[in-house]
Amino acid sequence: MEKIFKSYAFNILLILVFTIAALYLTIRDFVDEILLAIQSIQLGWLLIVILMAVIYHVLIGIILTQLTRMSNPQYKYRQGIANAYIAAFFHGITPSASGGQFAQIYVFNKQKVALSDAASVLWLDFIVYQSTMVVTVFVLMLFRFKYFLDSHSPLFIFVVFGFIINASIIFGLWSLARLPRFHHWVSTRGIEIGIKLRLIRNKDKSIAFMEQQIDRFQIEKARISTHKPLITKIVCLNIIRLMFYYFLPFVVMKSLNISLLAGYSLLDIMALSAFVTMINAFIPIPGASGGTEATFILMFTTVVGYINASATMIIWRLSNFYLIMIIGGIVFVLFKFISRNK
After folding, report:
1. CA-to-CA distance for 247 and 55, rounded, in angstroms?
2. pTM for the whole structure
3. How far apart, in Å, are the Cα atoms of 60 and each of 65, 67, 70, 82?
């Protein structure tokens, strides 16, 4: 436990170091102007920004609750919301957001949800969210693809790669489950190629792991077909959740009295928010720190200017990452305390 604590403490320190470094490198020449822009913030709009950031994770908790009630009808919304905030905390302090699901399994266990049920919930949540997110980002890319390819060509390459990776995950699972020939090719020739490229070490273990994931996917796919009204509801909640996230920078701009440059609209802001998320997939640092800040400024400079983009980024990052990390950390400490006393 002491080693784990030291590891998390180091990751939190890493987040702060990379964030400070990114801020220093990106805003050092315009500190006074950026601080002046931040000082004009309207408290009413700021409260809306904070509320939206908080509600985003409440929506995740509602989704988890709805899915968990399929097998555990007694599961409460407060339990699902606590699970969501604890997951957000561990997503933030682990490289590539790798610790969130392990934390969720731990929380589900303490909440008396069986391991098999917890795994089922996380699988369903992943399938529905990943599918919804890929479709939503595809629509946003479709509307503004050519323009952002011309104006952000170096960064947009990473956006496209991020989208391909996210889309290929869900598409690959569907293909492996539905196309026997493709399944056979991946389990034989595909894994052999992975071994030659030194991406895979143990052939038998890799095949067994793949088969296990496909079996799990088949089970959850069957559950989706038998719970269509619920899954439709979860899809709608995920769309609302994504809209909250992609819409947040625009509300931050409203709080700072920032107007979009001529020719830009709310759709551009939402598309850029989605593109920043796609690029974050390539940043293995805990919280994608450093890279997120720099990418946000580079992306949004075209629509509001450099100083306004920097001011927007600071408020956006404080509200939807650092604030949530603090809330998630507090929820985790309280959860541990209550669980220990029980």
Report:
1. 13
2. 0.84
3. 9, 11, 16, 10
